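=== RUN LOG ===
request id: a7f3
mode: sequence -> structure
chains: 1
length: 75
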Amino acid sequence: MSVPTPTDSEIRAHSGDLEEGWRWLKSTVRVGQCEWDSAIWFDTKRSSYLLPMKADMRKRENITAGTIIDVSLWV
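=== RESULT ===
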């Protein structure tokens, strides 16, 4: 999933210099009752950060394509 534009611009402005490797930032994510350590990657084609979401987490929270969710993200 893509991180919304106003948020990704703020992350890039404050944490872009902390990007590692292929422009990724360590992060912690919370969706519903699930919380896990992850990373977000900056996609130059979209000019946005992408947040991968494991199948196990999608299944636990009953998330399918097109589902709108609230995500807490700590970078």
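=== NOTES ===
The first strand starts at residue 24 and ends at 31.
The beta strands are 24-31, 34-43, 48-50, 72-74.
=== END ===
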